[in-house]
Amino acid sequence: MFHIVQYRPLRLITQNSLSSMCFKLMLSRPVAFAQLWKSWFSSHCLVGNKNIILMGPPGAGKTTVGRIVGQKLDCPVIDIDDDVLETTWNMSVSEKLQDVGNEQFLEEEGKALLKFSASGSVISLTGSNPMHSAGMRHMKKNGIVVYLDVPTTVIMSRLKSMKVDRIVGQSPDISLKDILQFRKQFYKRWYDIRVLCGGDIAAEVVAEKVLDAVKRYQNSELETFISTRSSRSGRSMEKDSCKYFSDVVTEGLAPDGGLFVPEKGLPKFTAGEWQSLIEATYIDRAQVMLERCIHPADIPASKLAEIIGTAYGENFTCSKIAPVRHLAGNQFLLELFHGPTASFKDFALQIVPHIFAYCIPRSCNYLVLVATSGDTGSAVLDGFSRLHDTDKQRIAVMNFFPEDGVSPIQKSQMIGCQKENAWSVGVKSDFDFCQTAIKQIFTNSDYTGFLTVEYGTALAAANSINWARLLPQIVYHASAYLDLVHQDIIPFGSPVDVCIPTGNFGNILAALYAKMMGIPIRKCICASNENNVLTDFIRTGVYDLRGRKLIPTFSPAVDILKSSNLERYLHLIANEDGQLVTQLYTQLENQGHFQLRKDLLEKLQQDLVAGWCSEEDCLAAIHSVYSTTGYILDTHTAVAKVVADRLQDRTCPIIISSTAHYSKFAPAILRALRIAEIKQNPLSQLHLLSSYSPLPPVHWGLLETLKKKGNDHHQVCAADMSMLMSHIETLIQNHFM
């Protein structure tokens, strides 16, 4: 083991003089002394015997930031380049590289790391250290690796100003940009914490961000979840039963019937952090955002990267995952239908099954219940069927859908997506009954307890009542804005409006959450069809279900009267007043209506405006847009387009969420485009659309699913709670016993 020269930051105040000052302060100002002691103790506990290891490309500022962090923590600072490599080799790093060449240099560098040992220090790695696996595994044993993530364009500018024209791995055939991009895969493999660093950010600011990130990493108990119906006094009494991300993913619905939300809200990104993601891919944006929303104690960054890569790597047909397309004028479409089941639900439901499988305990089987108004069912079935075989043995899915309340193609798709661990049940009622039934089952402790004791099976939810469903949806709203900036449509900071076809309020809530996290969304436009309870509520503050009956429409995914996720938004604008939320929803349940206070309605209307669209206007919009642009809107996107035309003021771009591929609603599309006589067989409808050459191609996954043999077999159930419970027990017996 060689001797390590450690840099210890210079102090203007010696330890003796500091002790003397503290003693005087303790006598004269005990409160100030207590605050100073708390700050000192907190800083020293932050490191303990662990090292803080700074990693990143050359030019990321690791050395400078490391010295500042070490000074703030009063702990040793070690620069691998200066204090280890050059001391060991008795020559400069550049001389060593020139002497032995790229490959041998990496090996020599790795050997030096393997002989290195330190504790309670801040360590700045070289830019190439992460390329040596054995060396990095050795370093991680006693350290928290912090990745200083600086955009490549910024790094290249810094290296140019530093007159650095060659780094390890570079050759005449490989450009500096290419090698920097190549190295990112190694940085992503090893880090525990990521710190986003924009172009103009000062080293002092980066150091503070490092300290904040390490504090977060070591304090998972600070990121707890509460129910939308819990009172503040109740929370203080229930500290022993805190809920963390893994808990809320597993449980889905809170025991009091409310929905889980993060107690301290969502993280907010700075403008510089958002700007550092402008050049990033969709997968990288998702990784960065979800890391900040999910504590690494629940899912480590490396596992999260694996999950995101699996979800979006091969299952989406468009490389941009969620591309933004210009429609006309100031209107842009956010295309959310490139996943395997052709709707926006894929964004969450390709990820959630893997998150769920990782978070649940291994000692229990789980049956995931889901209610769908159309698109969720096939997305859930497809997502959970892609799990590893070992996970499918302990996780099954039961999907309830309104037997006569979805499009023929949606029904065929849900039935065609059934697998050995995933089943669909048609219910002779509407979506609201299905959703309410699932909530009642979850809050029936006698029944859930019986399933656990008798069958060793717990229930879980995959609807957007599950918090994990919402997080991936926040990503695509943020990504759409960043894409407009990247395309030079707007500069960062300029506002946009978004218009979203809305039924259960989950998608539009995700846009509101993106706004809270720092995306400059001005207004969220809530677009309803003829089931326009949300439009009335947003305009008047009165949520009134009395006398309303669900109207089947061409846009079945928003044929909803009870919008579950509205509860989360009301909890937010009511300053987390769970008692008020409980009162409102108790009144809705018992009397069929409630009314917001004036101050809350004013808050709501600062974020939201609303309108609705008739069936005739929906079809007319599909025809008009196709006639003028050649683009086909699905029926839900057409609803949003009609409402956007009426409500936008044209002072900023408006992003319309295109939530499903048009081919899922072939009869309505054929009718709108006045193509031919509509055939009843769903597969025939798709073939008819395919045969009409001017149209864009039908969705690949949809066509493949409908071609499967035996996709007309499924269970049908009466609208009766006892019957639903019987189906659940039968599935558990067949799959798990």
Automatic annotation (TrEMBL):
Keyword Amino-acid biosynthesis part of the UniProt annotation: yes
Single Gene Ontology MF annotation: pyridoxal phosphate binding
Organismal lineage: Eukaryota, Metazoa, Chordata, Craniata, Vertebrata
GO annotations of cellular component type: cytoplasm
GO BP: amino acid biosynthetic process
Entries under PROSITE patterns matching the protein: DEHYDRATASE_SER_THR
Keywords annotated in UniProt: Amino-acid biosynthesis, Pyridoxal phosphate
Cofactor: pyridoxal 5'-phosphate
Protein's name in the database: Threonine synthase-like 1
Domain Threonine synthase N-terminal: 240-312
Pathway assigned to this chain's UniProt record: Amino-acid biosynthesis
PTM annotation (N6-(pyridoxal phosphate)lysine): residues: 345
Family, per entry: Belongs to the threonine synthase family.
